[in-house]
Amino acid sequence: MIAHSWGSIVSGRFAGEHPRLVDRLVFFGPIARRARRTDPQRLPGWRLISLKDQWDRFVADVPPGERPVLAKHHFDEWGEAYLNVDPESRTRLPHAVKTPSGAFQDIYDAWAGEIAYEPALVTTPVSIIHSLHEPRAQPRGVRPIPLMGNISPPCVASRPCGVCIVACAVFCSGGAGAPGSCSGLDRRRARD
């Protein structure tokens, strides 16, 4: 199962509740639980999201002078299709799509320490891929190896716990079988 961003919450919950139905997981830019610092923010049922909001989201963590993950001309093409999903989007100023807040609420809850699933219940191998430019995605003890552009390689945990789901155990220190490591078999399975 492959999941991106908010989809990692949904697939993590599914994998935890139905482990026999998921052989392995790939999380690309997953949402992770953070230490609780505040009460979760409550959002309204709907949000208006403009093209500027979307562009800002794509470039927020890109360091000055680095290229964004999505080229501006590709974003502009995508933006037209994005506005087309809401027939009223072009009647608003700025043009914006009316979007349900449910996924955003789940993300804000996770960032306030309340993720919608228990990562320790996920027992399948997990590969986590994230942008090297996203400081929130860089777990302690992880040594990413750049492959291309600003994407790091996958990390695998044979039996991820609440920490390993975020910590990408393959690149942590420790030998096979040690905490924060995985076996060669799991590494081979992840490549297959």
Concise structural overview:
The chain has helices at 7-17, 51-59, 72-84, 102-111, 164-167, 184-191; strands at 2-4, 25-28, 46-50, 96-100, 126-129, 156-157. With 192 residues, it is an alpha/beta fold. The protein has 2 domains: 2-40 and 108-191, no CATH class; 46-100, no CATH class.
Question: Could you walk me through the main structural features you see in this protein, from its secondary elements to its overall organization?
Answer:
With 192 residues, the chain is an alpha/beta fold. It folds into 2 domains: 2-40 and 108-191, no CATH class; 46-100, no CATH class. The chain is built from 6 helices and 6 strands, in the order βαββααβαββαα. It has helices at residues 7-17, 51-59, 72-84, 102-111, 164-167, 184-191; strands at 2-4, 25-28, 46-50, 96-100, 126-129, 156-157. The strands form 2 sheets. It has a 4-stranded mixed β-sheet. Strands 3-4 form a two-stranded antiparallel sheet. The longest helix has 13 residues, at 72-84. It is globular and about 45 Å long. The model is unreliable at 145-192 (pLDDT under 50).
